[in-house]
Write a structure and sequence with these properties.
Low-confidence stretches of chain A: none
Number of strands of chain A: 0
Shape of chain B: globular
Shape of chain A: elongated
Distance between the termini of chain A: 48 Å
Structural class of chain A: mainly alpha
Mean pLDDT of chain B: 91
Strand content of chain B: 5-15%
Number of helices of chain A: 17
CATH architecture of chain B: Alpha-Beta Barrel
Strand content of chain A: under 5%
Low-confidence stretches of chain B: 283-288, 293-299
CATH topology of chain B: TIM Barrel
Largest interface: A-B, 26 and 25 residues
Oligomer: heterodimer
CATH class of chain B: Alpha Beta
Largest sheet of chain A: none
Number of strands of chain B: 8
Number of domains of chain A: 2
Distance between the termini of chain B: 24 Å
Radius of gyration of chain A: 22 Å
Number of helices of chain B: 13
Radius of gyration of chain B: 18 Å
Mean pLDDT of chain A: 94
Number of domains of chain B: 1
Order of helices and strands of chain B: EHEHHEHEHEHEHEHEHHHHH
CATH superfamily of chain B: Metal-dependent hydrolases
Helix content of chain A: 55-70%
């Protein structure tokens, strides 16, 4: 007999308990039980407030089977870099959902509005497991506007929410902002699937701005250009191939490998060593992201 | 290493953060206070408290300082009853935020009935949550206001070892120490304390439960007041151990009672902090010795550069 499918809330609880002392686990489970039925906002604040005090901020460090369980419970969910208190806080937020589905969003908004920086990171990381996913788009976009890089990354990195819920404009600005603030693109889920012509145009414009200011351009930028490269973008890629660093030239070659049409093909053939490396799969975007 | 236990960093520039970090300030505490003009509604308070628990904490981390705060309704704004009631309502939401090391700044400004009411209510909140209290002694009728603050804290059965009386001077220090409270001194140009006077205080009263801070804010003030005072003490023949207590160890012990500030935060931060919020203090990496600010980086700073009058 197979056990019933485990929900994200179940998994979060089991991970926290497995990494806590008996006393801390008792406290945590007691709070979960209380929050399932409590109507008191104060109970929520106290549980959230005491989370780091009672459970610490250790890394969750999920085992491979736990990561697999996460993805089985919620497609593309990847809490592998969460901390224990973050898991507990999201478990607390989710504990009240059965009781008050409609009030969930109202409470969540209040929590966001009075959160400290550490709580903000946790609440944004929780986006993929909240009920009624379509209701949190405005909040998620607020996160991507943050001046605090770790908060931006809580939405953008290893989080399936933007690729599933953001419209094209929101998506494009998130990707552009990642480059703008020096954040990596590789941890953004859905980069290749959500690439689109307006984004390719925005990114090429951004590369031109950087070139004009004689500032470096992240080689990751070209990842979202290749598949939608128009004639002007192909010229930009040619420039990178001709004048870029080793890493930039690899990125340009990889982008050209994704581009369509004879011009991209011609450019690639002109650099046989890079062409061969692309075809052999020796150059990857993850590798380029890590320099 | 220095801990500046009273800084209003929201009013300071990135240059200040850089100078503090290079002078060896590893952590600072931002007490909730007014803005220089009165707030008109509780929403303004919510955004302010979120700022000092949020963006300012992040900003400090980018410069290698750990940032902590206190939350509370200050005595000036306690006189707006509608605002005060609403702030008291939302304070419990912030009191347990990470890095909140005390309820404060509390106390009296003009010693009105409303100030007294909300001072007492917040003392009760601090007691309930086992948090330290930071008391701002009044600028005017200072001695009387200080004595009254302590009497009320004792009346509410607060443990004096959980209460910091800040902005002391020569007229208040003896009675604060006698009653078992912490006595903090804000080293400030023109008003409050100059750091030469601070050296004299340490000579006269020793270092038990005494510490100094910069109280740097939007007015004329010096974010390097703590390292400069340390250097003056050193030149005045005060021992390294005593300097360490007055500029680091004592404020850490006082606010450490919250459980929300500890040496490990900057010496051995949690890996997840290191990855996200805290860029570390580059000056202290590799066992370098902190320097006393740009003014003091010349072979030997002139004494005049260190004095805060």
């Amino acid at each position: 007999m197979t056990s019933p499918k485990r929900t994200p809330a179940d998994l979060l609880s089991s991970w926290v308990v497995a990494r806590s002392s008996a006393a801390a686990a008792d406290w945590f489970l007691g709070q979960i039980e209380r929050l399932k039925t409590s109507h008191s906002e104060k109970d929520v604040y106290l549980a959230l407030g005491y989370a780091t005090r009672k459970l610490g901020k250790g890394d969750l460090e999920l085992k491979p089977e736990e990561r697999a369980a996460a993805a089985a419970a919620r497609p593309y969910w990847d809490p592998s870099d969460w901390s224990i208190d973050q898991a507990a806080r999201i478990a607390f937020v989710l504990a009240g959902q059965a009781r008050d589905g409609k009030a969930f969003k109202t409470r969540l908004e209040t929590l966001f509005n009075t959160a400290d920086v550490w709580e903000l990171i946790a609440f944004y990381r929780g986006l993929p497991v909240y009920p009624n996913p379509g209701e949190h788009v405005a909040r998620a976009r607020e996160g991507t506007r943050s001046a605090m890089q770790p908060i931006f990354e809580a939405v953008a990195h290893r989080n399936p929410y933007p690729m599933e819920q953001f419209d094209e404009n929101a998506w494009n600005h998130m990707v552009l902002k990642a480059l703008f603030i020096g954040s990596k693109l590789a941890p953004i889920l859905g980069l290749d699937e959500r690439a689109n012509p307006p984004l390719a145009r925005m990114l090429c414009d951004y590369a031109h701005e950087r070139w004009a200011a004689q500032r470096p351009v992240s080689p990751e930028l070209w990842r979202c250009v290749g598949a939608h490269a128009d004639a002007a973008a192909l010229q930009d890629l040619a420039r990178v191939l001709a004048t870029g660093s080793t890493l930039e030239r690899q990125a340009a070659a990889l982008a050209l490998g994704n581009a369509r049409g004879p011009e991209a093909e011609r450019q690639l053939r002109a650099v046989p060593d890079l062409h061969a490396a692309v075809q052999a799969g020796k150059i990857t975007w993850v590798g380029i992201a890590h320099g | 290493m220095f801990l500046d236990s009273h800084t209003h960093m929201v009013s300071r520039t990135t240059d200040d953060y850089e100078r503090m970090a290079s002078a060896g300030v590893v952590a600072c505490i931002e007490p909730a206070f007014w803005l220089g003009q009165p707030r008109t509604n509780v929403g303004s308070y919510i955004d302010y408290l979120s700022l000092i628990c949020g963006f300012e904490r992040f900003r400090a981390g980018q410069f290698g300082l750990r940032h902590y705060c206190t939350v509370g309704l200050n005595p000036k704004e306690a006189n707006n009853e509608e605002l005060a009631e609403a702030v008291l309502e939302i304070l419990p939401r912030y009191a347990l935020k990470e890095g909140v090391v005390a309820i404060g700044e509390l106390g009296y400004d003009e010693q009105t009935t409303l100030e007294d009411k909300y001072f007492r209510a917040q003392l009760e909140l601090a007691k309930e949550l086992a948090l330290p209290v930071m008391i701002h002694t009044p600028h005017r009728d200072k001695r009387q206001g200080t004595l009254r603050s302590m009497a009320v804290a004792l009346e509410h059965k607060l443990d004096p070892s959980f209460v910091v009386i800040d902005h002391n001077n020569e007229e208040t220090v003896r009675e604060v120490l006698e009653r078992g409270f912490w006595a903090a001194f804000s080293i400030y140009p023109f008003t409050k304390m100059g750091n030469e006077r601070m050296v004299e205080i340490v000579r006269s009263y020793g270092t038990e439960r005494i510490f100094c801070d910069s109280a740097c804010d939007w007015g004329v003030s010096d974010p390097l007041a703590v390292p400069k005072t340390a250097e003056l003490m050193r030149r005045g023949g005060i021992s390294e151990a005593d300097i360490e207590k007055v500029t680091y160890g004592n404020p850490l012990a006082a606010y450490g009672k919250s459980g929300q500030i500890k040496e490990d935060d900057w010496l051995n931060p949690a890996p997840i902090d290191q990855r996200t919020l805290y860029m570390g203090n580059s000056v202290l990496r590799g066992g370098q010795t902190p320097k006393v600010g740009a003014a003091a980086t010349a072979p030997a700073a002139a004494l005049g550069d260190l004095k805060i009058v």
